[in-house]
From TrEMBL:
Localization of this protein: Mitochondrion membrane
Renumbered ranges of Solcar repeats: 33-118, 136-226, 238-338
Region (Disordered) residue spans: 1-20
Name listed for the protein in its UniProt record: Solute carrier family 25 (Mitochondrial carnitine/acylcarnitine transporter), member 20/29
Length: 343
């Protein structure tokens, strides 16, 4: 190989060596950082979500999982929760998310970033229209979101079970003890009655639900590109503002597709330990669909009413989703830019 000394990579005759050199150069160009930086940035976004979003999440879970008629909408649920339990009740169950959201968002966003890097190197690259630079395609962003959602579901599901069971507990009269005294008691009772697999009850529904991250992160990239196209016009905005708005809008796309799946997932997770109501994911879907039926009404009325069953908690979800995810994604993108790790 002495005759090849000093030549550029594309002039080296051995194709295997050429491929290795080009791949190494591309990896350095595309990442140029530790693959763990995305996980560290995810911790920051997770804590942001906790502070901004947990009160909305509490209201959503109660609307979804309490018997029909308990609350007359999101505002009624909010006022009754405050009047009966005080403002701290909005953060009921937050002790687990305080740790778990940092961990789960670290897993979600860290795996997202690494999946993006992998897909960029394996057939999902495209050229930017202005400078012909290489970037990940919109399909690649969606596929990365899908894989990240599945990764997150595999690890985070037990903490979701604990959170939902604690959020659902309403304050009862003093002589009636609570079912759970805290996070560890949820684990103790669940494992005692159902075994360790009880902590993964509803995992199938969680996988289906978290598949919607494909829509969220695909949408996030679409909106970011849209706002980038405003550069040089009167509507030009800073990168930080674009990330904030794109994150909020993408999160609303996500919840429009994911809320029916989230509704079913939560019902399965908070189902009675000793006397479960649902036999599985599809049985839960069937029961939610059949909850509302009025024989005196026509087909259209009953169909709309049944669809609404899957969208219980829609108002607090929409109110929560935009500021929570806008702030969280803006923080994550900011940390990634600061560390020079943005793809």
């Amino acid at each position: 190989m002495a005759q090849d000394k000093g030549k550029r990579p594309e002039e080296v005759s051995d194709p295997d060596i050429v491929d290795d050199i080009k791949d190494t150069q591309r990896v350095g160009k595309d990442t140029g950082h530790s693959p763990f930086i995305g996980f560290a940035a995810g911790i920051c976004s997770g804590w942001t979500k906790l502070v901004v979003g947990h009160p909305f999440d509490t209201i959503k879970t109660r609307l979804q999982c309490t018997p029909t008629g308990t609350f007359n909408g999101a505002w009624d649920c909010f006022t009754k929760t405050i009047s009966k339990e005080g403002p701290r009740a909005l953060y009921k169950g937050a002790s687990v998310p305080a740790v778990s959201w940092g961990i789960t968002d670290s897993i979600l966003m860290g795996s997202l970033h690494n999946y993006r890097a992998i897909l960029l190197r394996h057939g999902f690259a495209e050229r930017t229209p202005k400078n012909d630079a290489e970037r990940l395609s919109l399909l690649g962003h969606s596929v990365a979101g899908l894989f990240a959602g599945w990764t997150n579901a595999s690890i985070a599901h037990p903490t979701e079970v604990i959170k939902c069971k604690l959020q659902l507990q309403l304050v009862q009269p003093a002589h009636v003890p609570k079912q759970f005294s805290g996070p560890f008691d949820v684990v103790r009772q669940t494992v005692a009655e159902q075994g360790i697999t009880g902590m993964w009850k509803g995992l199938g529904a969680s996988f289906i639900y978290r598949s919607c991250f494909a829509a969220m992160f695909g949408g996030f990239e679409i909106f970011n590109r849209l706002f980038k196209s405003f550069d040089g016009t009167r509507y030009e905005m800073s990168t930080e503002l674009a990330n904030f708005l794109a994150g909020g809008m993408a999160s609303n796309m996500y919840w429009f597709t994911a809320l029916p799946l989230d509704n079913v997932k939560n019902r399965i997770m908070v189902d009675s330990i000793k006397d479960p109501r649902y036999k599985g994911v599809f049985d839960a879907y069937r029961q939610v669909w059949r909850e509302t039926y009025n024989p005196s009404k026509g087909f259209s009325w009953n169909s709309i009413a049944r669809v609404k069953n899957f969208y219980k908690g829609f108002v607090p979800v929409v109110l929560r989703a935009f500021p929570t995810n806008a702030a969280a994604l803006a923080v994550w993108e900011g940390v990634m830019r600061w560390s020079n790790a943005k793809l």
